[in-house]
Design goal:
single chain, alpha/beta, Rossmann fold, globular
Amino acid sequence: MTSEKRNRAVVLLSGGMDSCVTTAIARLQYDLALLHVDYHQRTSTRERQSFEAIADHYQVSRRWATTLDHLRTIGGSSLTDPGVEVSPANLNSTTIPSSYVPFRNAHLLSIATSWAEVMGATRIFIGAVAEDSSGYPDCRRQFYDAFERAIEAGTKPETHIRIETPVIAMRKSEIVRKGIELNAPLHLTWSCYRNTEVACGECDSCALRLRGFQQAGVEDPIPYARRPSLV
């Protein structure tokens, strides 16, 4: 008996927890093509290691890691400009943090769209989380709705690609629980904005992740220099 052919999806996999859980969700329904973008962020080497490890875990052979040089040249972010300090975590802040990379997700989605159109993929998955949207304007669903319209206007008539954001409405604790439910390899992920060996526990990304694990009542499996209580 022949199994039903599954549609293909491009998944933007940074190597972080949110994109890992997004990958675990996408693979339930789609054949995966995993895309990693190195934009010369501080922890790019470590994130690439996580990308490869997660891809190996799921035995995905269709994977592509590419590099964007211009985001480093443009600068304007503590992730790409070594002269800008990565700010300590402030989970109550409503201002855009120094780690915001101007319009980054539009660049990533553009690459994903081109690859998806060539392969005939019908979906692009991205692990955007609205809990982060007070800091990152390109993590809101309205941004992805607008980008979908741009894809429809700028691709071939027979191309129909939707952007899936399955964790966008989840809190970090819910993402942790979903990852555990799906047996996602959270121990292979990396989220720290500063360090590549032991996570700092002090940047925004570490704090959001640690709080998520603490609220879920689960020990985060990666090493930290500090594990402050955030609940």
